[in-house]
Structures are given as C-alpha cells and as structure tokens.
Amino acid sequence: MENILRFILIFLPMAMLSGCYSIRDIDTRRIEPNCVRECTVSYSTCINGGPTFGFKTEILKACQDAFVVCTGTCPSR
User: Fold this and answer.
1) What is the pTM of this model?
2) 3-state class of 76 per DSSP?
3) Which of 8, 56, 69, 74 is 20 to 30 Å apart from 23, CA to CA?
C-alpha cells in the first residue's frame, strides 16, 4: 500500500507535467510545410539534448518557445 501511495505522489505529477509544453497546440496550417518540417527537426533535437533524468519542464518550455519563434519566421503558404 505504501508503494502505491509513493507511486501516486511522485510519478503522477511528473506524468502530468510532461505534456504541459507540447507543440501540438501550435497552428501550423497556414505556414510553408518545408519550413515547419525544419522547425520540427530543430524541436526534436532540442528535446533530445536535455537531461535523461529529472524534470525536463524548463527544457520543454524553452524548446517550445524556440519552435514558436522558428515557425514565426516561416513564410505563409
């Protein structure tokens, strides 16, 4: 019982925070697809460059911000 409670108190908040900074909510429908693809590759590289263990919220937020800036420089369709 104690292990279950520990799991809930530790890992549930981590799971909830992991999806906070996603690029799924960013509307890229009106942006040139090739440019969005390049920004997505940069985002993936940014995400994979962070620490393997621990909270990644700061890195996720920074990578999301960089993706927004990158797509903001892309031409429209």
Assistant:
1) 0.69
2) strand
3) 8
